Amino acid sequence: MKPMLTMLAVFTLVGAAWAAEKPNLDPIATTLQDEEPGSECVLTEICYDWDFAQSDHGFMPAPCDTGGAPVWGYGATAFIPGAPGNVWGTVLNGNYLNNSGEGLYSPVFTVSPGCNLMEIKHFVHIETNYDGCNVTIDEIVVPPFEGYDATISTSTSYYAYCVDLEEGFTGNGFSGVSRTWGKSCFDLEPWMGMTIRVRFDFGSDSSVAYPGWYLAYVKIGSGSPINNEQSTWGSLKSLYR
Question: Which one, 3, 71, 102, 160, has the greatest CB density within 10 A?
Fold first, then answer.
């Protein structure tokens, strides 16, 4: 009997150590807060209106790291409160996978003076700091005007596929507001005159999973952003001068 009790004690200690190392920072709530925009674009002209309630619009999942599990899917979901019809999401009716890592490519388009801002409407509920998601163009991380939440998975013990050591959205909502559908605005000016496609990267490490990242629409156009923080763009724009 003693050996079995010893084994149980070991498992109990290991479980306690694991819980202490990665606490549950993002409990799943049962209510949905009002929408809280992050950095909404005020689009006076729209070049592309990719509303996923109508169609998948030719967006394509693709690997963004070696070994990450695929997660992106298109369709309806009852898992995310307030989902506006069909969406692109990381596992539509369940939590994302551990060790997931996949990108979602937009169709190709040309950045022009009338098509230089991108607005997305999205839902974020991800393990804080360990897992995350971001927007990239030509392997360059593109920040929204309000900035990303954190650098993902700085721990040497865990690796988040696709987004490890990169800035990204993480945690449970926008601007401290829990579980919302929010909007974020991105400046595409550094790619002016170029034909590009945008990639939405998602990644997680080996433990703890939540609903993930869901996209209701992506719009490309021109106008002005709310909460414009141009200072975040100095280093990126210098790459294209």
Answer: 160
The distance between the two most distant Cα atoms of the chain, rounded to a whole number of Å, is 76
- Kindly state the DSSP code that residue 27 receives in the 8-state scheme: P
Q: Could you identify the residue written with the tokens 């629409």?
A: 217
SS3 category, 236: helix
CB 174 within 8 A of CB 36: yes
By residue count, the chain amounts to 241
For residue 201, list its beta bridge partners: 103, 134
pTM flag (> 0.85): no
The alpha-carbon radius of gyration of the chain (Å, integer) is: 19
Domains, the chain, with CATH or none = 35-238 (2.60.120.200)
Digit-coded pLDDT (tens) for 189-232 = 999 999 999 999 999 999 999 999 999 999 999 998 876 444 33
Q: What is the rounded CA–CA span in Å between residue 207 and residue 166?
A: 19
Could you tell me which residues come within 8 angstroms of residue 12 by beta carbon, excluding any fewer than 6 positions away? none
B/e letters for 12-40, b = 16+ CB within 10 Å, e = fewer, are: eeeeeeeeeebeeebeeeeeebeebbbbb
| Measured distance between the N- and C-terminal CA atoms of the chain, rounded to whole angstroms | 73
